[in-house]
Structures are given as structure tokens and as C-alpha cells.
Amino acid sequence: MAKCDMEGRVVLVTGGGSGIGRACALEFASRGCRVVVTDVDERGGEETVGLVKGAGNDAFFVRVDVTKLADLEAAVAAAVERFGSLDYAVNNAGIGGPTAPTGEYPEDGWRQVIDINLSGVFYGMRAQIPQMLKQGRGAIVNMASILGLVGFAGSPAYVAAKHGVLGLTKTAGLEYAAQGIRVNAVCPGFIETSMTKALREDEALHEMLVSKHATGRLGRAEEVAAAVAFLCCDESSFVSGSHLLVDGGYVAA
């Protein structure tokens, strides 16, 4: 099946310096998009830009701390100044955070996870939606998780943040669909990225996680990126305020 035509359109990806964010940048580039890569990791972000340019597409990097609205507003402004529009946005930046039971969870860890994984998505949309309203069109995909749908012992902040991302997505999807802006979320299962490296190094835990996926393996970042791109495609024009599971059957069990 041919990829949908995104030739010449502009996408902004937060957390684009590695993992799923980098895979999203490359996926959109493969469909003809010009890419704005943002991250706090300047080296990783510039590496992603290099990969996009090496594949023959235009891209540039903006350092963004997603806990700061001003950073995200500046990135949107830079996208419009350089490329003339902002057609798609992927609010992907996130961290795993500490692991501890709720009654023992560190306050600073809670604050950091909520600031990045939840408030960062809100700030992203707060910066992106006004520009898309000016254009009368746009598509936003927020990175949620299967843990936005189910619990996971030892990760109360991450689970709470991802549940919140789904709530934000539903609300914004309702608010702006009639104005030409679609907002959706993707809910990955456990994916082979640097964020899950520690989990994979614990053999027993890795086997347990694999067993939770009906596919008998963890996912790949490229599989998530393909789903993200689909939700921005015109082929998904009747989808807004929704979430797409990319979880190898994890939640179906």
C-alpha cells in the first residue's frame, strides 16, 4: 500500500533526538515532509536532522524544554518562519521516571514526570493550535501509552501522566475538529528504545513484559511512527479525539 502524500508539508516533533521521536521524524521525512526536530538533547536532535537531510529532506533543530511554554512557542514560530506553516505536530517528549510504589514515590520524581509527560503535551498543543487555527487546518498526535489505559505497579506518575494525555487529547479533539484541526493519540506497548533498556537488562522482567504482548515480542519505534503518520494523513480525516493502540495485543488480554 502506497504511503499517503505529505509532500512539502511541515511537521514538528518533540523529543525527536532519539527513540520513537527520531523514528517519527524519519517516517514523516520519508513521506515528503519538512521536519522541525526539537529536544533538550542537542546532540541527538542534530543527529536526527542529519539523518533526515541524508535521506534528501529538509530539516532543522530547535532546542526545546517542553516544560516551558515559551520554548514551544519559539519552535512553532521558527517552523513558520523557515517553512511557512505548521501542518502536523507530534508531542512525543517524555521520560520514564523513578520506580516506586505510590506510598513511597519521591515528590521530585512525581513533579518531573508530570511536568514533562503531561504538562509538556499541554504546552505543545497550547503553542501549536493557535498557528493551526490561523491556517484553518492541522493534525496533532500526542504520545500516550498503554499505561494511559491500564495501571502498572511502581509507575504511578507515568501512569497518571499518560491517562492525562488521553484526557487532553479527547478534549482538544472535541474542541477543534470543526475548525479543521484533528487531535489524536497513539498508545504504544513496550517498545525497544533507550527508555526500556533497563527493563530489557533484567531478564526476568523482560520475559514478563514480552509475555504480556500477544505478538511475543516488544514493539519497534518504526511501528509506532507509522501509526503516528497515519493519524496525520488525509486518510484518517474522520478520526479526532481518539487513540490508536500499537501494543502487540497487550491491552486485549
Keyphrases for this structure?
253 residues; alpha/beta; Rossmann fold; seven-stranded parallel β-sheet; 8 helices; 15% strand
Give a written overview of the molecule.
The protein has helices at 19-30, 42-54, 69-83, 107-135, 156-176, 197-201, 203-212, 221-232, and strands at 10-13, 34-39, 59-63, 88-91, 138-143, 181-188, 243-246. With 253 residues, the chain is of the alpha/beta class. The chain has one domain: Rossmann fold, CATH 3.40.50.720. It has a seven-stranded parallel β-sheet, sandwiched between helices. Helix 4 (107-135) links the parallel strand 4 and strand 5. Helix 1 (19-30) packs parallel to helix 2 and helix 4 packs parallel to helix 5 (156-176).
